[in-house]
Amino acid sequence: MRTPVPEYLQEVIDDLTDIRDGDVADYIPDLATADPERFGIALATVGGRVHVAGDADVEFSIQSVSKPFVYAAALLDRGFERVLDSVGAEPSGEAFDELSLEADSHRPKNPMINAGAITTHQLLLGEHATGEERVARAVEFLSELAGRRLEIDESVKRSELDTADRNLALAHLLRNYRVFSTGAHEVVEGYTAQCSILVTARDLAVMGATLANGGVQPLTGAQVMPGDVARQTLSVMAAAGMYDAAGTWFSGVGIPAKSGVSGGMLGVLPGQVGIGVFSPRLDSHGNSVRGVEACRRLSTDMNLHLMASDAAGSASVRDIEYDDNEIRVVLQGTIQFSGAENIVDRLQHIEPGDTTILFDVRRVDRFLDVGRRMTLEGMRRLRLDGHPIALYDPDQRLPSPDMGDGHFPEQRA
Q: pLDDT by residue (tens digit) across 110-131?
């Protein structure tokens, strides 16, 4: 059998493709030429499995989605105290390109708005780093998160620099308030290069999964950042990642997220998954219209709202036991999305045949709706592969076990 997750992601794309509200970013000439019909979704688990659909491997400039990752790099390079001295962690309630500064300290309100992101970029490496060194640091760090070498789109960089008057004004004001002393043009050029790094939705999902995994890159196993840096980064994303729509976003969708004007979106659910979406049409807040709806759909369908998440419990698959007459799949804990995704991933390695597969769920505490549906779908696909399906469920943890086609597993006492 095959895991149903990529098919589900394609279903989300198919359901949302007809949404054509919004427009591509036209204030940056290179972004104005983007194909508005592009649409890709990727989902990466903390266990290192990546599922994609649509245009998930099409490259685009990362833009503001770089902000949380460069913030993490600054925390690594300079430490919490130094970074927090320069950039706050409060939502601004204003658009991303406003000069949102604290009244007394003149710190930018948070690192997700442009004033804070420009300041954060300037913090990379140290006081005496050159502009080229800071850019190299950003590229190298984002590449480590993605698990592949990333490059800067020089054409996008030049196009953005030609229209960078507002960011230059922000940088001059920040320098005037002595938030930093580096030349405004040097900092804005470096920040623009940072925003011009090319990524895919697949990259964003993997980078997000690294944050979800406490700083451990799930494909390489490298500890890219300590857990406290990942936690701080996710906390700021939750508070301010969606700019002046952050409160509405978090109450309705509940996934720490960050958007970019090229149409990229990053979502992270701690301990479970990273989500990457790419669709260039933007709403009035500068967020991808389809990206917002895709994340809303994933949150609803997979119960990914952070404030509604049940405890994950222990690993969902306790054991898979083979003998001549039967394969016993022993499940345990609370089965939510990431647990169910792990189950169907393990099941897809069972070859077609006629051996009975017994699901033992007596150690399961609870099936969330998404966990129940995905587990039953795994059963259905194994049955289509020729395997009789049986269920040992003395406490009825798996209610109404219809495999979706009117077939029920054989009940074992």
A: 999 999 999 999 999 998 899 9
Catalytic residue among 5, 61, 66, 67: 67
> Is 100 marked active-site?
no
Given the residues 50, 159, 191, 279, the one annotated as active site: 191
267-315 tens-digit pLDDT: 999 999 999 999 999 998 889 999 999 999 999 998 888 887 555 545 8
8 is a catalytic site residue: no
Can 191 be counted among the known catalytic residues?
yes
Which residues, at least 6 apart from 396, have a Cβ–Cβ distance to it below 8 Å? none
Asked if residue 23 lies in contact with residue 281, where contact means CB atoms within 8 angstroms, the answer is: yes
354: phi then psi, degrees, rounded to nearest 5: -120, 15
pLDDT digits (tens, 9 = 90+) for 358-398: 999 999 999 999 999 999 999 999 999 999 999 999 999 99
Indicate which residue of 12, 261, 329, 370 is catalytic. Answer: 261
Instruction: Count Cβ atoms below 10 Å from residue 11 Cβ, excluding itself.
Output: 14
Whether 250 contacts 238, CB under 8 Å:
yes
* Catalytic choice (52, 188, 196, 243): 243
DSSP secondary structure letters along 284-348: TTS-BHHHHHHHHHHHHHHT--GGGPPP--S-SEEEEEE-SSEEEEEEEEEE-HHHHHHHHHHHT
Query: 206, 145 in Cβ contact below 8 A?
Result: yes
**Phi, psi (degrees; rounded to nearest 5) at 361:** -115, 20
> Is the pTM value of this prediction over 0.85?
yes
Closest CA to 218 of 342, 135, 39: 342
